[in-house]
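Minutes, structural biology subgroup

Action item carried over from last meeting: produce the structure token record for F-box domain (Dillenia turbinata). EB confirmed the sequence was re-checked against the source entry. Recorded below for completeness.
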Amino acid sequence: MLSKREKAVQESSTIDLISKLPSSILHHVLTSLPPKDAARSAVLSTTWRSVWNSFPIILFDEFLFGMDNAVLRAGKVSEFLYFANVRLSHYPQNSGLSKFRLCMTLDEVESSSQVKRWIDFVLDAKVKELDLDLRVNYGNSRFYNLPLEVLNTDSIQLDGVKLDIESIQNLLSSCPVKELSINNCLGLEVFQIFSCSILKLELGNNRLSNIKIVAPNLDSLMLVQTLADETPSIIEALSCDLLRDLTLRGANIRSDWFENNLSNYPHLENLVLERCIMLKTLKTVNGRLKTIQLEDCNNLAELLIGTPLQTFIYSGMIPPFRPIIAS
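Output recorded by EB:
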């Protein structure tokens, strides 16, 4: 059997062999590790420290620092800010970023100014995917005022931020965003988007009363509303000829919406309807439909599907009808 010293030498040799691999492979290794373990790799050797510093995925999540504990939070904030500033200060200049995620509660104005500097940094680094989950815990507002420059990227996920809809409309009409997710945000009672670049759009719990979408290359659309919002929604998804996936959850839409709109999506393959309680009839003859999923659409009384489906899923109350599906 090997002694402890011999085992240590053997493990060290293995680490040294791995360290000689190209940085791109070592970066791939880091992507498979939990965030804390990936950060710890920096102490293994000078090579691994360099690999960590140039790792193009940067995640700042306050919950990994135990900041969800109110008792410990006060002492953790400065530690979190220090870690983030050091991580960014060591990132190589003129190196692109694959992803930047920031999950944080802002307790004071200084925190907001730090966040603004971080966002400016990752935008200068041409970040491809930007994921911001921010809450404000001071002043009158609980929403972070998002700088509109963040929209000049490929993929955007926004949760709980305050947005200026008019500025977003103007910017999205001329920027290359391909994937956009907006959830639990303020200032979006009316949402309009005109974009040739966007491929995937998700809108969730924004208390929308009017939605208009003109996106000729849109492939996937998901709309989510809370049942507490009783205002009927006007949903116009125009010039979306390439739409393949449509998901509506809690949407206040009526049967005539489907009759007037489904024919506008000739490439639609997957339709998911959940908690659409105003829907009473559903009729479709779209020949490309492969999957229909109905969940808790409890007022649905008539269902006619004039196309041979691959998958049909129904859950909720026992329906008062027998679905008519073409074979």
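Discussion: The radius of gyration is 24 Å.
Next step: EB to file the record with the rest of the batch.
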